[in-house]
Every structure is written in C-alpha cells, then in structure tokens.
Amino acid sequence: MFKPRPGQDEVINYRSGKMGIAAVPGSGKTHTLSYLAARLVASEDLVEDQEVLIVTLVNSAVDNFSSRVAGFLREFDLLPGIGYRVRTLHGLAYDIIREEPAMAGLDNRFAIIDERAAADILNIVVDNWKRTHPDFIHAYTAENQDPERLGKRWNETLASLASSFIKQAKDYELTPEMIRAQLDKEEKSGGQYPLLEMGYSFYAAYQQALSYRGAVDFEDLIRLAYRVLRNNPEYLERLRRRWPYILEDEAQDSSLIQEKLLSLLCGDDGNWVRVGDPNQAIFETFTTADPRLLREFLEREDVVPSDLQYSGRSAPAIIDLANYLNRWSQEAHPVLELRDTLSKPYIHPTPPGDPQPNPPDAPDNIIIYNENLQPEKESALVANSARKWLAENPQGTLAILVPRNARGAEIVEQLTAMQVPYLELLRSSKATRDAAQVLAAVLGFYARPSEKRKLADAVLAIASVRFGEKALKGQSRAVRNLVNVQSAPETLFAPDAEIPSVAATDPEQLTPEDLFHQGIRDLRLWQGAVVLPIDQLVMTISMHLFTEPADLALAYKLAVVLGGLAASNPGAQLPFFCEELNNIAGNRVQLYGFSAEETGFDPDAHKGEAVISTMHKAKGLEWDRVYLLSVNNYDFPSAQAQDNYMSEKWFVRDRLNLEAEMIAQLKALAAHDRLGLRKPEGQATQEARLDYAAERLRLLYVGITRARRELVITRNTGQRGDCTEAVPLAALRTYLEQQA
Hints:
single chain, alpha/beta, six-stranded parallel beta sheet, 28 helices, 16 strands, globular
C-alpha cells in the first residue's frame, strides 16, 4: 500500500482546481501521480464514460504509468484499464484529430511520418534550395574558408536550420502562407531578411511534400489538434466532459503550443495538475520546450503550488553536492543573467521510517579528478575504473554518462578492448555501427571502383568480418600496399582473372596476400548484385558475409532503412546510401527500433554491466555508481570569454549562431515586433550563449542526481587541447575540498 511521505500527501489529497508541483530528482513523482490517478478513478466523482487523462513525454513513460495505475486500482479492488487514459502529448493530439480529421482539414486516411522520413524530406528540400542559392552559402561562409570544400558541413547545417525553423514556426502556429505575407509586408518597408527567406523556402517546400503524401508530422499533430478544439466549441466541451481531470508529467519540457492545447482542454474552471522540475529542463536545444512556462504556471494566482522535495535516491553527500550547485548558481555564478538557472526547492533526504531510505554515505563516494586529461586518456581512465568497480561489485549498477554521443562511442571502444560487459543507450549500438561501417566500405567501392583507397577500405572491412580484428593487427598497411601497387586494379575483376583461394584458417597464419585475395574474391562475387535495389543488394552481401544471427538482424534493419530512403529518394545512387551508412557508423543518426529507450529501460535489470548513455537519455534513471565525463568549458560553457559553443560553427562568418539569429527573427515576426526584427546581427548569438549555458548547467545537475551511492566526475582538454575545467565544476571541486 502507498505510504506517502511529506509533500506527497498534499498531492494525493488533491480533488479539484489547478495544482503545480515542483518535484526534485528521485522524489517519486511518477509513483505519486499514478496513485493520485487511481484515487480519482476510485472516487465516485467520475461517471461511466469519463476518464482521468494522464499526459507524459515519452512512450516508455506511458507504459510505466499504465502499469502503476493498474496496480493501485487492484489495491482499490477495481479492474485495471478502466477510467483512465495515458498518452504522450503527441498521442493525445492524434486521438483528438483521429476522431474528427475533417475538422483539421485532413482525409480519414491521413498518415503520420516519423522523424526519419521527415529528415529524408528535409534533405531533399535543402539540397534543391542549396543548388539554386549559392550566394547564400558564400555570404555566410567565413572569409578564410572555401565554400566549395564545405559542402557536407553546409548540408548538415542547413538541414538543422530547416528542422528548427519548421518546428518553431509550428509552435508559433505560423503557416508558410502567413510567414510569406509578413515577409512581403516587411520587404515593402525596406526590410531584408535572408535567414527568414531561407526558412520560409524550406518550410513551404516541406509542407508541400507532406501534402503530396497526404501526411502530417509530429509537430503538425499538436498544432492541428489545438486548432480543431479552438474552432469547434461543441467538440471541445465533449472532450472536457470526457476528461474532467488532466494530470501532466514532465511539464518542464512543454512547449508553448503544448501548454496551450492542455490549457484549452482544461478550461478556466477545469482540473489540471502539472508536475515537473524546472531544474531538469534539458531539452531546449533539441525541441521547442521552454521551462519558463512551468515556472510562470507555478506562480499563477489560480494555481495551488506544492513541492515534492524529499528524495530517497541518493546518498546524503550526493544530495548535498547537488544542492550546493543549486545554491552556488543562485548566489555566486559569475554571470548574473545565469543566476536564475536553478531554483528551489532543494533536495531533502527522506525522513526516518520512509519506505525508501537514502543509501548510506560511503567513504570517498564522490571523486572529482583535478586533472586536465586528454580525451583518450579520460576514456581509458574511466573504462579501467569501471572495470575494477564492476569486478568488485558484480551486483551493482554503473553508468558512464557523456554529454555527446560521439564521446560515448569512444568509451565503448575502450570497454570492448578491456572486455568489460556493457550496454549502450546511444543513437546506435557498437554492433550496429560496425555493421554499417563494413557495408559502407563495401558499397563505397562499388560506388567508386576506380579509386584504390575505396578498394583497400572494402578489402580490409571484409577481412575484419571474415577473420576478425586479430588477423588485421599489423597487416593493414601491407594490404593497402598490395592494392596500391596494382597498375590496373580493374583487371582483378575481369571474368578470366584468377584469384587464389585462402587456405589458412588460423588468423595468426594469414598473410596480407591472403586478406587481399579474400576481399577481391568476395567483391567479385557480389558485383553482379549491384544492379539490384539497395535493400536487396545489402541483404545479398550480408547473407554471404555475416554468419552471426545478431549481425544478420542488424543488416536486415539497415537494409530496411536504406530501402525506405530509396523510396523517398527515387534518384538516389550508391554514394547517397554510403553517406547514410557512414552517418550511422559515426553515431550521427539514430537507428530506430534497436533502442531500449523506445520501450523503457530498467538499470536494475543490468547489474554487473556498464551502461553508456548521454546525460540527456539518463534523465529519469539512476545507478549505484555514475561517471560524468567531459565536464569542460566546451561541453559545459558558462558564457565566459574563453568558452566555445557547438552552435557557433567555425566555418560560418563571424562565428554566428545561424539558428539563434533565424529563430529570434521568426519570434519577432510572429509577434509583429519590427524592432525585434531589426536587432543588430550577432545579438541573438550572444543571447543564445546564455540560454545554452543555462541548459548545460541544468544538465550537470541532472547528471549528478543520477547517482545513488558513488559519483565520479572527470574533464578533458578537448580535441584541440584547449579546453579547461567548466566553471561550475571548479566551484564543486573547491566546495568538496573545503568539506574534507
């Protein structure tokens, strides 16, 4: 039976009106909200066709809430699955539109494209626009850079700009037609806005492509659902009656249009409970989320504020460190504008008798390495430390948290070399990346068969699968030399060319000639399949190359992904598919369907393993021992003069943050703010530094509060060796030294 701790009792006794709850990490907010939902269902206030509506952020949380509410209903001797509905915000919007699609201007058979399909469309849109607007690239390229040699970097940058513009425009409820009308009006008064013109072009072409497919994207769902409810009072009242209570989880990650949708659904006199933690708002960079919205809600006169400030997750020393970071940021951060980044409530250990007591403090359970490590040395140090800890604590849970996916992939390489069992919560797994890299090398040769480097890459990739990395040790250069000395490598693929077979089976007995000959034999065997569709070509190669079921399953998944790309890009050639495989191999894109994050993740189910995750994906999870890596002034800038920012590209003129400049203009356009539209170039870049520094400070707070018993924090010097300790980390280290 649920035994509430102080603060939780106020929440579960809620009966009506609007309530805002600030919940510290580990406060049991999901448990509390689930019990409240069950209690409302069990009350006699609901009639037969009414439901308590629970809205959360991700699909895995839907499953979590559903199972917990069902469990509590059983305690009330009620049947689970009746009287409540759990949805993501996008799922809720879909329910609203699906019931009345005509009100949204959609056909009954409308489709929803996922992020992968949306990205495919945007890539085509960007490529078409770029070819017809070379002047834009030249105008925004740094003086000392050659625009012609920056094609790939500009493609990635423009695709990112397009995605951000479209998401933000939809959050502001702006259609391409509305933006065009506003721009035309501004142009008549002398305004010239190339960034907005570019964004409009992307948006208009993207929406046209969606319309052609009879489809909408995830951002459209919420925008259209809001429009449907706003324009149809009768339907709105019907839904308000159906869902008299709205319980919202992770409210700090709501965007403006999401908040407006729930506010409209609730009504002025409705019942709405919003739970979240502004201190854990870490998705602004990737979404249109705005943590200020929850803070403003908590301060409204018609809202009853409440705090869940007791947490049994972490040892007292770790709680103390997180609280110090909070206090320091409010009182001593060197940048005044960042002093409101974190706020109360502070975290309190659970009171005596609580069913979830805090772990006991262990000697030296917090370690902050006071050394600027090179990235490779940091990875090796952490991997070796994790190996030793897991050997001594086989029933313990451990996570290595990184600020970026690329750092996680480097850690995986170290753990693999040390034979440490691990699990990844990155964009893709090492096995996926390895399979993609091999297939990219093979297809890369078929795409450019006259290039000796491509032939050597393919031969070595085949050898790595056929004979293992051990066979390649010390022989890669010799294999490349065998390729380079071929005066006419194309003769190797003539029908009458004789290529010796490989007789050796012991990897240590294989010669460079053996590896070379095996690669040529395989490439000759598969060359007839190059005329097949890309998915069939990939499976033809994979069925002959891979022998392990797991590798074949991954290859099949890759074939499906490439087949989907081919369907949306009819004229795509092999180089295009090679690029996609290289992106997967480089951990730059997510391969959907192979992620534990999509179906929920339980750290306690992976005792004795190292879990590698980004700090963003670790939100909501906890481990006995946690490592935080790369806490330097690049990954965690603090708006200091020496800081560099990922969003300020080195090849862009004046290191402008083009996204910040563009979105600031879009915001001004939406608000009909002519002065805002005419801000000096570069001002939005400076303002974005503050927003990003604030988000990264909250990300550090989230990272610290993932640890139950032990916490290790390290930093590195970055790729160029010029990174220094992050300002908040220096404050934490000094604090710990004073406490010793």
